[in-house]
Amino acid sequence: MAIISEITLSMINGRFDSEYYQPKYLESAKKLSNFETKKLVSIANVNGGKRLPLGHSLTIDGIPYVRVVDINNGFIHRNQIAYIDETTWRYIKSYDIREDDVLVTIVGNTVGLTGILKENLGTANFTENCARIRNCKLGANYVLAYLLSKYGQNQVEREKVGTAQPKLSLDRLRRFVIPIFESKELGKINFYISSSSICHNDSNRLYEEAQQLLESELSLDKLSFQKPVGYTAKFSELELSRRLDAQHYQAQFTKLLNHLAKFPSRKVREIRTCNRRGIQPIYVSDGAYDVINSQYLGSKHINYDGLQKTSPQAFAASPVAHIRQNDLLIYTAGAYIGRTNVYLSDAPAFASNHVNILRITPDIDAAYMATVFQSVVGQFQTQKHSRGSAQAELYPNDIDKFVVPILSVKQQRIIGDLVRESLVKQRESESLLEQAKARVEQLIEEAVQS
Hints:
By secondary structure, this protein is α+β, with helices and mostly antiparallel strands.
């Protein structure tokens, strides 16, 4: 059935495409008209970033540089970002980012993702694919909550242009309409965001403690890996691995495995009861079962909010893709290959075809083992055993070859508990962020009803 919107000539805003005047956008604009509003440019500084100079690339240390992938509708954290060298920094140094700056992605399929920096990074910069909102008179926390609300996101969807490469221009972002609430309500929203930020930082701190404890117990923090000019491999190694590529035999991999030999260790195939990939799911918008695909595997934890769904029939038809509590879920193809999260929910779920389900024996703490996979132990062995050039892939039979350290039950439990506590804090942070967004939406809806 066709959907028709009627508009007056005065409502035309430089756009003549019918998409711009969808009923949901017109309804949002009408609801906002119940408030005193300001254009974003009148209450904050809105500027773009600058493209890195040709030939300059990211580094593993140096000056912090925030990219699009570091912004995930919430808080920007130091451990998620990349770096640039001083030469590159001199070229873009005026495009800096400071504490309480809000970044909005403006190019690509992730247009509208919004994050706030809640820590002092010192000298730091940001990508040209983001816009920076600074010195907002209503407070950075409120801007974050509003832009993440459905009213902020409706403006993003309405104002962006393009399909193959969507883009939100700085000029359009600057003209976003922002409702002005009473100071009391702004204070409540600010409290939710500030509390969410504290929980977010606590979550990161606990996870980092788990990583540091693992590194300390295995003396990984004392290892140094320097690439030699060349290295050799025995013919017997080639026969066993059936690999002829030099990548597989790097000296740093050998050094790590020799180091792990000093500790009680096992191969994954000796400690697992299930090791297989999921299957391509049939997505159903109102389905009963969660689907976890690779986009929901995070740098620390699974993103349990907003998971896509599948039907009971599709779920029952594919038991090989069923996920259980304490399963390790491994990203097996693409940019974040080897990324591993432990599934800590007790709700049955379904794994997509690019997610590997690794179920280990109950005598080993699954959260501890996820930390092992996320450490240099897992990272190096992912590099060693992955296959392919255009797109690297990690297969179940290669995961079986991973050598993993088995610390004492007590040590495993301490590390695993830190990971579990980190997730609790992450969920608290997400809940408080949702409350801030919900309060913005509630205030707008209440004004319409009154």
